[in-house]
Amino acid sequence: MHDLLDDTLAGHRLTEEEAVRLLSTRDRGVWEIAAAADELREQKVGDVVTYVRNQNIHVTNICKNLCGFCGFGRRADDPEAFCDDLATVREKARTAVARNVTEICLLSGVHPDYTLDSYADLISCVREVAPGVDIHTASPDEIVWAAGQSGVSITAAIERLRQAGLGTLQGTAAEILVDSVRAVICPRKCDTATWVGVIREAHNLGIRSTATIMYGSCETEADRSRHLAVLREIQDDTGGFTEFVPLSFLYENTALYRAGLARPGATGREDILLVAVARLFLDNFDHIQVSWGKVGTKMAELALLSGADDLGGTMFCDDVSVDAGGEGADYLDPGEMQRMATDLARSLRQRTTTYEMV
Ligand code: SF4
Predict the structure, then answer these.
(1) Which of 57, 61, 62, 63 to mutate to test the pocket of ligand 1 (most atoms within 8 A of CB)?
(2) Interval 339-350: pLDDT, tens
(3) How many CB atoms neighbour CB 18 within 10 A?
(4) CATH code for 2-351?
(5) Which residues line ligand 1 (CB under 6 A)?
């Protein structure tokens, strides 16, 4: 492992098999992997810890997919189902603007009745209220759904949303980009090839996106490694990913866990290794994010010592995590982020969605 880490720091590109070996480490080698990833982070992006001032807006929790790992999505007839009208969305966007955000994330269920017009109207109404803000929305699964509902191509759907005001695409709905795993955790979502196709199309059209992984349910180290390889290959060709965002599975209120089909989330060792191996494997990504809402702020600080350089966003609200059982996942004050960065002798900087410093 020493040789492998030395070689990687000297420019060797990790293979999938090597990534599996690193992800399977169970002894103090974990710290060596984390240290190598931290060194690479320092070489690549220096000692700055970044964050984006953003706000999630949940428009609806009604969802056609009802993924087993999700505690947020509801059937339309569920007493807890909601679907905001445009006036309410506009009001939420006004609140976000008053909080000086540079990014608004429309993060919702995939409503079975939504068409491309519905998505375009939502984006336009936020754009009216928040002209200078990056509207970060629409996962590949939503793009496919909207395009299919309205009988247009993926390219036409993305173009239409861009005209409405779409800034960047959400690299969500990736979960694990291995179809045998998707068949268990999100069988109604688009398959791997479709997800990859939409992301490539968006990048080719000049729309950048994040890249995510939802790990810790029922996938293996080999599945995680395959997922990273899919992302690295896309990035080689398009360069369109802004950052890699590991999302640790929050299991408490999920059907997948209740049915005995998933473990109770990743362990701390796995959280650290996922970040560290991602830093080492994804040699064509500049930024590795740690999702404090999923792993908590103490683990997030350790992840910043293991290859991560970005703390994601302020959020202000994240019902997707809270509904799944994530306590305190809705807001992190930049003052607390500052405390974490200072504790590591690093400096905190506010960034835009595409990593320009504010
Ligand atoms: S993860 Fe997204 S697509 Fe799946 S049920 Fe939840 S809201 Fe719907």
Answers:
(1) 63
(2) 999 999 999 999
(3) 19
(4) 3.20.20.70
(5) 63, 65-67, 70, 72-73, 109-110, 186
